[in-house]
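Quick log. Single chain, no ligands specified.
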Amino acid sequence: MTKNRTLMQYFEWYISPEENLWRKVKENAEHLKKIGITDIWLPPAYKGEAGNKDAGYGVYDLYDLGEFDQKGSIETKYGTKDEYLLAIKELQKYGIKVYADIVLNHKMGADEKEEVFATLLDYNNRNVEMGNLEKIEAWTKYTFPGRKNKYSSFKWDYSHFGGTDWDELQKRSGIFRFCGRHWNADVDTENGNYDYLMGTDIDFDNIEVVEELKRWGKWYLNFTGVDGFRLDAIKHISAKFMKEWIDIVHCEKDILCVGEYWNRNLDHLNNYMNETNNEIPLFDVPLHYNLYEASNIGSNYDLRHIFDNTLINTNPDMAVTFVDNHDTEQGQALFSWIEDWFKPLAYSLILLRKDGLPCVFYGDYYGVPSQNVSSKSYWLNNLIILRADYAYGEQIDYFDDKNIIAWIRKGDSQYVDSGLVAIMSNKDSGSKYLNLGEEFSNAIFYDYLGNVENNVILDEYGNGTFSCNGKSVSIWVRKPKEKNDILDI
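-> predicted structure:
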């Protein structure tokens, strides 16, 4: 049995440029390997419209990885090109796979404006026209004067976009679809058609655009040496294009990838995966919302249904599970932050079960000082280690009580003393009488998290009573003959 993989999202929205993220992740590579992180998702590395203050999603120049004096800085929010490349190499030196976050849906911060004929659309239904064709001034020319054609001489103009959200002529915002363009049909149906998201919307029906983005993808993969991609906002991008793009990049290297399709409706996720031939695993957004509701409803939430209508439950091989991310933080458009009391339960549910690739959020691990969010590394370290060393073998669920659930992992002989019992409550303290099998006869178990002090001694048949405190989780593992204190990293 191969070692369990654990992904970490190594950034949060409010991280400051002064933290120099590329240097930080390089310095922490050995530590991340030690606790059991196998994969790292790094933020967008190219220049955004706000220069070194841009989180990377206001895409300006895909070829500027912190190398050129553009948008007020040479470096990006996270550092310089050389620091980025060194960070990737250091992570890979420790066997950690690196995912680059890429945004192909839109561009922002154009160098020049153009006169364009466009039609204003209804914001809530992008299929409905609100007026006649009219002339606007749109910021659509991207010439990248600071880069001077290095890496690519391709220049963008209005012919490469489907629409925009600003008319400079009349200083007004809105959704303007350019004359002769139409929205792609193979996108999410929210707002009638959710092709348009923000900025100048890239037209994937334009062959010049398609070929340029394929060239860029191959260049990026070879130039940076990353192992894969986190694909941003794919619900707004033609599924046909994304499949073609992934196939082309795959020809360069056998890459890993995960897509962000933000919709809690499982049918939408399954439809997208079908359209892309199951080549793009997706973040399990429905599970995130189940966890969010469980944290807010508290003891009235029925934990037996925590995995209902989720990707991990219906298509586990294609599920990347997570608790929170940069978009769910306070102040963000998708705010749905999970309450602190429930976070240990939520992370146990994604880290210690057999299915899916779990993702640990930087903001939970290191904290978010600007939002008064404290670091959870003191217990997250232990859960990540438990996944790496103990969470193996057959899984048996005991989801038989609305407030207290448990599961057993039977272990694997390849990993010494592996196997565990997880038990959690969203209400009062409690226990379950469980059978682990005769292979665990007379074994002594202790709570690795230290929440319950007393040991559990199994009988000759492998039976024992395992407990947890109220609104808490305990992870019970076999006690070795000589046990050191709980690992404190």
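The chain is about 25% helix and 25% strand.
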